[in-house]
Give the backbone structure.
Amino acid sequence: MEIKLLDNKKGFILTRQPEVVEDKLYISFTNAPENATAIFENTNDSLYRLLQDNCCEIPENFLVGEIKISVAILNGEVNSPKWECEGIKASKTKDGNILIAPNDMNLPEKMVEIQLEMQEIQNNLSILSKNYSELETKLTKLLEGYDIT
């Protein structure tokens, strides 16, 4: 499984196909900083894994139900970086293996977040465009009085 960490402090699962786990789940984190720790939380417990070569493994016995994933730099600082990642859902198959898939149960909530973020970007772009136009007008007026050739 591969998770990509973005600049907006969120992480998304790139490998969307469910996978079967027999022993351990291996997860790689693209764009993870050095000394980052992956934090996994199921309904009963938490698991911390220091990333080595941007990868870590989760034992089969931890893979139960919905699992939240985050990545953080645990250096004791209050404002250390932290990425909230998409979660996964684990369910046992008939043959005793575990099926792992992205937890898509919160898609409507994610759509609302994206729409709000898009609106904020549009508002900021409108303000930026207005400020640019005002600056251009002032610069034109300033240059009208000077012969720059």
Notes: The beta strands are 2-5, 10-13, 19-21, 24-30, 36-41, 46-50, 55-59, 65-73, 82-92, 98-102.
